[in-house]
């Protein structure tokens, strides 16, 4: 009897071990890599917010797979959405999730693939304040962009400052604030105005949120780069840009671009925009994110509660048509290579995020992305299966 039991257990182990090994292998198997003979160029465009990171991906991916090139045009989220809905690109970048009107125009089952997340900062060019750390609340930022706070020496700004030297410099500055905003359809604008709509009922009633809004004051610049270029050249100016653009630019004087610390949702601190404080903003939202083919229009990580949550932050997305045969010039092998490239962006490509001031995707978001990428088909055939 003992011998029979032993043999039975041994047989069970023999049957179980291969299954376990195969399961572990399946979980780690990425999509098929491009073959050395594959020569494809992918055209994409849209958001300027993630452009520094996407451009890094373009270079690094091509080093690994020399036959695969990416042409990403940073034309703004609004233009990117239009390129995507008219099927002019293989994928688009947008910091704004598709809204109801966009969803109607977009390919059925459009996938939102979060590629990274980042912070939006209020950058300024004040000759008397050449360091980061001007303190601003959401209400004050809204009033500046509404044209209700006009001068740098306004008590509403001065009284927030804890550094006596900054407060004194503002008191002595008799100049008007030169407001700079985006002139193009922009996902950065969508996230920024969404934040202002959350923290200011006056802003919500008069302007609201959108990729393009009826600005009440200021001058426009095209793209994050355009706004940054104006602010760094024009004294007394103030604008909003993605953090990487503030970190990557210098003022005419040669000092790094300066930006404000913004009061958190809890009203307990004024926070610097860092990878850590931006990640804290997203922490509470991750568990409730929709599936890639779901409705993302109300997803926001702005004004998140928590002592360390920077209040102006956003995911940025790759918009992907799940039925690639609908795109001109697409064949099955090119479709397969696109699936691999997208997978690489949200996995191996994440190691380049932090040095460029973006937040690497948490594992839960990477898994959500993988499930989305597994939905991509060519002529009804699934190109890669999520384990």
What can you tell me about this protein's structure?
There is one protein chain. With 387 residues, the chain is an alpha/beta fold. Mean pLDDT is 93; it is low at 1-26. The protein has helices at residues 2-28, 51-64, 77-85, 100-105, 138-145, 155-158, 164-172, 187-199, 201-206, 223-233, 243-247, 275-283, 332-346, 363-373; strands spanning 40-46, 68-74, 91-94, 111-125, 135-136, 178-182, 219-221, 237-242, 258-259, 261-263, 270-271, 313-320, 377-378, 381-382. It has 14 helices and 14 strands. Helix content is 38%, strand content 18%. α13 (332-346) packs antiparallel against α14. It has two domains: 42-117 and 315-382, D-Maltodextrin-Binding Protein, domain 2, CATH 3.40.190.10; 119-283, D-Maltodextrin-Binding Protein, domain 2 (3-Layer(aba) Sandwich), CATH 3.40.190. The strands form three sheets. Strands 1, 2, 3, 4, 6, 7, 8, 9 and 12 form a nine-stranded mixed sheet that branches. It starts with a helix and ends in a 5-residue tail after the last strand.
